[in-house]
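tool_call: predict_structure(chain=1)
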Amino acid sequence: MDQVAATDSPVVLPPEPDDLIPRRFQWMCAPIVFGVLTFAMFFDVLFTSSRVISHWGNDLAMQFLAWRDYGFTQLAHGNLALWNSHVYGGAPFFAGFQSALLYPPNWIHLILPVPVAINWIVAIHVFMLGYFTYFWCRGRAIGISGSILAGVMFMFSGPYFLHLYAGHLPHLAVVIWTPLMLLTIDKLGETGSMRWCVLGVFATTMHLLAGHPQYVYYTGIILSIYTVLHMKRWQVPAGFIVMYFGAVAIAAVQLFAGIQAAGESVRSSGTDYSFASTFSLPPMHFITWLAPTFFGNVFLGNDETKELLYWSNGYLWEMSLFISISGLTMAVLGALRGQIRTVLVILSLIVICFVLALGRHTFLYKPMFDYLPAYSSFRGTVKFAYLGDLFICLLAAMGLDGLLRDRKIGYMALGNVAAAAIIMFMLGLFVWMSGSDGPNGSWGQFVASTTDAARQAHERWNDYLDALKLDPKFISSSASHAAAVSFLAGGTFLAIFALLWSSRFFRYAPYGILALASIEMFCFARTVRPTLDPAAAMQLPEAWKKPIADLNKDWRILMIPYDWWSLGMSLGFDGMTGNDPLILKRYAEAIYASQLLDPSTASQYLKFQGINLAVFQMLRCGMICETPIQAPLVAPQPKGAPRQFLQPLPVAMLTSNWTKFHSSKDLLSYLAAGPFDPTSNILLEEVPEIQMIPGNDSPGTVRVVNQSTDWLELQADVTRPAMLLVTNNYSTGWRIRPIESPQDHFQVMPANYCQIGVPLVAGKHHLILEYSPLAFRVGRWVSIFALLAYLGWTILLMRQARWFR
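tool_result:
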């Protein structure tokens, strides 16, 4: 496996140069290196629940702590939670890919406290990413040292590791399987053996279950191109199809449910161009290959000043490309010394990845947005950059491997490294000098134009940048920081020059490149790895605690600050807001209409600028919580105490009065401004199958007997045909299972645009209203049969083939 090139005809290679360690111990090098680096990075958080890896105010604190607590607490009690009543007035939970309930590494949550489990999951994934990248390089006949270099570069790279700061757990999980998928394609081309599909199906299944569809989509695009470029045998495209088809079948229960839910979400018909094109990689950010914090750094503690914070487009965890200067130098060497066909393929893929990452900054983005299926549903094409960096890591592995085999470095190559050092020193000097000229200097104008472009593209991270860009102190300090990292890059090039020069005379000097790259990447990663107190992140403001604890559990809470939107999942209350792309479209449009906003522009970012009493009552909003620093909907109470302002509807009610609208648009307009009394009238878009006679008296009684995450048990005594209104959010996944009823067919329909209506005949009804989408039920059986087939195939190969042993 280690001695055969993956992309060219088999050749006999000279002995591996990794003779610093005896051959019988060489297999231990990679796990020891990756294990030591991982432990050194995370040892302080692996055995404590008082700190968790992420930064306050980002997605871990605002979403994933509560999500993991809710989802895996339910799973530990034997309940796979399909529905989440605690956010957005109710939304699919399991189908929201980021819940990742079926992703095996996440099952650590079943035995460890949430903060400890998250820390271990992060550490394990960082280790596996390095190790899997190593395996991919070894599969291409690259030596141990070169393969370790690639692994270290990628496991601590900007496009990957910085997502720890943001708390993006699905991002960290989905990426690690890509090297194994690439290894499968390589081996299909090299050996023609379809047995490698066992590995490919496994890696792709994990890739799908990890919880981030956008990375899956982008990776699929690049791997499709990679397959085409490696199509020397029919087994390559056939194996690629088997790899994805098998993974889709095994993960069908997650995929089918997710696709069905996505079809009802605010992104079901794509997003508009201005939203989807945000977070494209700005061309000037290629400087972060050499100076990762050229545009400022992430905030790591209370002592750091705003003048040193990131000030360019988007978020630094999306826009940093850093993979070490030493590694980049080796990548250039690998491109110059590698086999022409192999290098051309890799360079082509690097160019494709970064052209796609540039997004709206290239002419390709608009036609892809218009015509490529589902491409307009995602924003942030910068995510393609992780694949580009992965292929650069491969070139770096080839470069170090070649350097160890042939230590002759030409004077031109040495001159280019020296020139790079000089250029970085000159850049640092220019930035440092121009920073003293204030806002009117070259650096000040560059900062102003960059922040203005970020604001116009809706990619501005910090709201205070408009003021800071005119502050001479900010201009000077940001210039000093950019100059410092430029000088550091220049100094690193000088160290590389010395190591390359020494390699001409000293046998083991090239190992210094590996050591230097490891130091670069470890120091970079350690300086952007914050922690937070999970207990503090799960705390409500003191003034809110008792009112929320005393609130009727059937009522929902509108929280204006976003910090606490997901806490209801852990603390047991239902909210009207949330922090996830999977928000039902009908609910979002109803909220937008109630705020006199265009419903067609509805997104996951709900906007509240006033109180629509009828709609809020209909949606069971019983309390508004806001802090004095927020723009208030109602005058905040002293010390920010919540305000209870009306009597919400019950969970279930009966009425025979209804109004039919000609279109959804008319209904939403009526919700926004009509004299709507939700206690006595229901708004419908279609005529019920059961004819109801309007009246002022009650058509009967209904009560909720029992309920769980996905179902309600209802008893209704209906005196005349009536509509059962359930004030949970409508989805096509809801269905009725009768326990006792004079009806044998039930129509589950949208009522009040975003709620559930069930027409009932007169009589006594004992019903279960459950969220159980057909896509989930079909996908469950497909997954079971596919998993059994995959396990049987794997066992058969293990019994028959010495290859697999």
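agent: Residues 1-15, 634-638 have pLDDT under 50 and may be disordered. Proceeding to next step.
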